[in-house]
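Rotation project, supervised by the postdoc (A.L.). Task for the rotation student: set up a whole-complex structure prediction and record inputs and outputs verbatim in this book. Inputs entered:
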Amino acid sequence: MAEIIKKATREGYGEGLLALGEQNENLVVLDADLAAATKTGMFKKAFPDRFVDCGIAEQNMMGIAAGLAATGKLVFASSFAMFASGRAFEQVRNSIGYPHLPVKIGATHAGISVGEDGATHQCNEDIALMRTIPGMTIINPADAVEAKAAVLAAAEIDGPVYMRFGRFAVPVFNDEKTYRFETGKAVKLIDGGDVTIIATGLLVNEAKIAAGLLKEKGISAEVINVHTIKPLDAETILASAAKTKAVIVAEEHSVIGGLGSAVCELLCEQLPTKVIRIGMEDAFGMSGSAAELLQYYGFTADNIAKKAEALLQK
Amino acid sequence: MDKNVRKDLEIFALKIRMGVIEGTYNAKAGHPGGSLSVAEVLAWLYNGEMRVDPKHPDDPDRDRLVLSKGHAAPALYAALALKGFFPLDEIKKLRKINQLLQGHPDMKHIPGVDMSTGSLGQGISAACGMALSAKMSGKDYRVYAILGDGEIEEGQVWEAAMFAGFRKLDNLVAFVDYNNLQIDGTLDEVVSPMPIDEKFKAFGWNVINIDGNDLQAIEDAYAAARAYKGKPTCIVGKTVKGKGVSFMENACGWHGTAPNAEQYATAMEELNAALAAMEG
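Outputs recorded:
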């Protein structure tokens, strides 16, 4: 078996911007004094004339992005998820979302796996916030390969895109040579008949491992990677739920308003199905290493497998 | 300024005011006070200053106007309609359901509107982005923003001011409509942003104080802004809120209240009399 390479999705973001910068002279990348952390620094180094540091002023950065986009630029604006989606929410809604401008928001350091910085920086609410903005596409890549591909795909989308990346290095399971990203199309990674595990972000790899654990117990799990949370791939989710009649949704986000909510909304209305959501319960996080926190809050293959078993016994 | 040019501009400003009254009266809502105070500056921008063409509202090389104080939309709409961006009749359908003219500027649907605004403090950032875009692309279009004096209480305005000053966006001109009134009272009854001029200077702007309802002063200020290199310009225009309608002038209550039938009649009578005197 090949050695597992670990890489944060933010690295894929940086690589994606670099590749896009070479293809598209119209690309402008903005950051808010976090270029080293968000990985826009790679683009900054290669294309200094098309990189603009807006300083620690995320609200203004979103407005700058809107003005650049309104005058024909392709814009990626970056900060930590907390500030991009939270602090600048209303700017994203009114200056970018309402005029449906092609601003792509590269939000890194999402979720609990930010780690030691603690609750103020662990953004578990961004998907919920961004989902409420009409016309906003939301992409949450599962590994660095998908992240890079998603950046290139986002550039083709006519309208705003919120892209969510992590700080923590996670296993790369997609092959860059063969991987094709299709916006809005969920990826079925494992076929199964007993339970559906729908996952996004770093929980996708855990879901794959969970499927292996379940298999040892004679349970056949289907694993679906929902990299595009909005628009949601209803067709793939409904087909799988119809088959297994039991759904686990796993995401590194609050159980309120994220992918779990989106799947429940879909299934409640169209195909009532037993669901268990795995996510951050209604609570703030705390400091700790990413690995410790992921374990503590149940963002693991073991927990997914355990919840799947429990669901099947319901 | 040539006498005839000035007269034409004054007539244009009067017609903007009529549009404001017409629009807010028919809508039974809207913001007449802060719309009336910017009639002169809009008259100058659309007739003397800006490179815009109603036949090509999306021309990528046009000058841009961002009405950061988006609640003055009735005045902007009147100016755009008078220039032929859309029919003047639309003004009567302002704020009505399923119509073109939204309560606040909507760039997606309204010809001539360069940025969607209304949530205060946001427009000036977009204007900075547009000015930066011109610089990055080596284009010569200019960007104009209109801010309210109450609006500059928003922190985002100062993030944008810092950015524009630091980036030396000398293709950007912001006009602060200093009418001294906001919803809850005069500036110093709420949270005074004074001194406005010194603040912008400290943020790296070229600042010009003028009478913001005086067309000659407006022309001179914008000419000085165009000539000034290396800094964005802020024109602090002392204006009269509700200007041109006697009972609305300097009255806080007319910030966000529409005239009733009787008030509408009185206001239009005054404006028509002023127009007749001007044209007579």
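Student's summary: Chain A touches chain B through 28 residues (CB under 8 Å).
Supervisor addendum: Chain A has two domains: 6-171, 187-313.
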